Amino acid sequence: MKSTSFTNYFHRISNALSETNILCLADIADVIISSKGRKIFTAGNGGSAATASHFCNDLIKGCRVDGRLGFSATCLSDSSHVLTCLANDFSYEDAYKVALETYASKGDLLIIFSGSGNSPNILTAAKRAREMGLKIIGFGGRDGGKMKDLCDICLIAPTDSMEELEDLHLTYCHAIVSHIREELKDIWDIEVVNYPPNPFRYALFDFDGTVSLLREGWREIMIPYFAEVISAVAHAEEGVEELVAEFVDLLTGKQTIFQCIQLAEEVEKRGGTPLDPGDYKAEYLRRLMENIHTRHESLKSGKVPAEAHLVPGVVEFLQLLKDHNVKVYLASGTDEVDVIAEAELLGVAHFFDGGIYGAKDSIKDCSKELVIQQILEENSIQGRDLISFGDGYIEVQLVKDIGGYAVAVATDEARRKGVNAWKRTRLLSANADIVVPDFENAAKLFAFINKDEG
Fold it and tell me: Which of 64, 96, 178, 360 is disulfide-compatible with 125, CB 3.0–4.6 A?
């Protein structure tokens, strides 16, 4: 039958894939991930040049996670004018070598593709790369040729067919990119929407979810409780939890009482007689404290270190701000007495030399709007001198409205690593300037906001 040759080809590819050294693939992915921030160069000839070019495309674009930048990758085979110039004026054998000498630095990565493993220009480039201190990854075939011994890692496609091994090389690249993309989700990085216009002299922090994780899970307590209250009035209404989640999320960053006021209004809309918002707040706090009481006690007793209930890296980052004379304020929607007590319990109160502000009995006292206005007036500064760090929609909007720079801290609080997708979406919709998962890489974040990335 006419289809037999196709079926046989696909079987050979399938068998070769099943025989591929998966651990070697994983090692290659790890080396590429560790090269983030360095330059990556790829090269090949003919079909391998096309694969080298394709891989760069995937490293640059395919490895973008949550809007973060991919890898800095360049295919030495791509630029026909540079390649033909170097081949003509030096030799084809030296073309990639000369390009590497021009572009690369110690610690960069060279990824080479060769079916035979004996292409002179690939071997010459690999030898020079070793001398320059680059790491070298090879994708080969057959017996690996001379290229195999020049590589730190060389993955050999288990076939002697040039067509098949080129298919396998591209499949390997796609598998690596898919793996890297998943790994990068939990690797610290900065998602940039707007670059900082200048270094900052004043910083404003939210507390819960930005500094402290003591109240992690508060949303999972507030939303069911509020839904329970509304459902007691509107028995058959659908989508109550979705309604509650929407207004709770919208008001996150303001004092808790505002969410309770909205709850009272929703009860009244449905013909019910609402409690005083303060009563709703008291019941919510009672339920919340039942949940977090053991966390407080474990800290007080010393059974659990403070860092277990802090956003990763926040102490190091606050110390950097202090060391560089940045005045730091804390403003929270949580009751002021509780914010101060928990900041002291966690050992971070002393960092907030500008003051610690929280909600008070009077609704208008210490709203974040007033705190921000106080910062501007007391220090005779403009909004552009202020940077904020928070995980609430409201604080991002407030700081952006006065011309400040807003850092969205989208911490996955339960796992203490990676980005919470829901937070990220909400904070970007409030026009956050950058998104970070936490402060784990405090030095890099500090350098970035001070426009000093080296």
Answer: 96
